[in-house]
Amino acid sequence: PYLVTNYTFDRKDFLIKMYVKGNILKLSIIDNTTSEKWVCSYNSMYIEELTRRTGNYKKFSIFVTMLNSGILRTNSCVRIELLNHRDLIALSDRQKHVTTSPTTEEDTRKYLILIYTVEFDKIHYPLPLQYCGMPNPRILQKRINYLEKEKRRLEEELAQTSCNKCATQLPALQNKIIKLVQDKKCLEDEVKCLAAELGSRYNSAHYTLSKNVPSNMCHEERFHLQEKI
């Protein structure tokens, strides 16, 4: 099964993708504001050992069902949280009734926490995620171009579909086009966010360098310096 949905963690919107094939679980979480991405893959042995260490063992298939319910909010006993490494340490300390000195180091690691609440107990299953940074704008643009071509192809196929096949093929083709348009819109939004971020960084650097130009520098020297910025 393949699951794609939006989820809000601490008033921030994320896109969650979950893919399961055989004994492999793949997760991808994307910040809808910054386009930063975290991913990881887990096999059934890792998941079952993880659940065993918590004292509440679950088979791989059961764990996947629980995670699916947590993402879709279909079971009140299961929910998910997204924590960074410092938050996870604090959570562990609270459970052990100890205190660890906080660190000020920047940490991009995140963990998707599956929380299972049962009578008189609450179990936390932490799934580590690897930080991938922001996507490459060129790759996103290439993907957008592909979606544009695929959209045109499907529209042509839809127009050429014979009347005899319309009843069975028309809904499927329309759904494909809608999905492609949605994917294209998401990628275009990511490109805009990256462009805005790069523009902001450039303007900040330009302002700082211009501000530091000595006041006694002649007009021509200042002009040539700004040309290099």
Description:
52% of the residues lie in helices and 27% in strands. It is of the alpha+beta class and 229 residues long. It has a seven-stranded antiparallel sheet. A hairpin with a 2-residue loop joins strand 2 and strand 3 (24-31). Residues 97-102 and 215-229 have low confidence and may be disordered. Residues 144-197 form a coiled coil.
State the gist of this model.
With 229 residues, the chain is an alpha+beta fold.
Features:
alpha+beta, 2 domains, seven-stranded antiparallel beta sheet, 6 helices, CCDC61_N, coiled coil
How many angstroms does the end-to-end distance come to? 51 Å
Overall shape: it is globular
* Estimated helix fraction: 40-55%
- The CATH class of the largest domain, by name, is Mainly Beta
CATH topology of the largest domain: Dna Repair Protein Xrcc4, Chain: A, domain 1
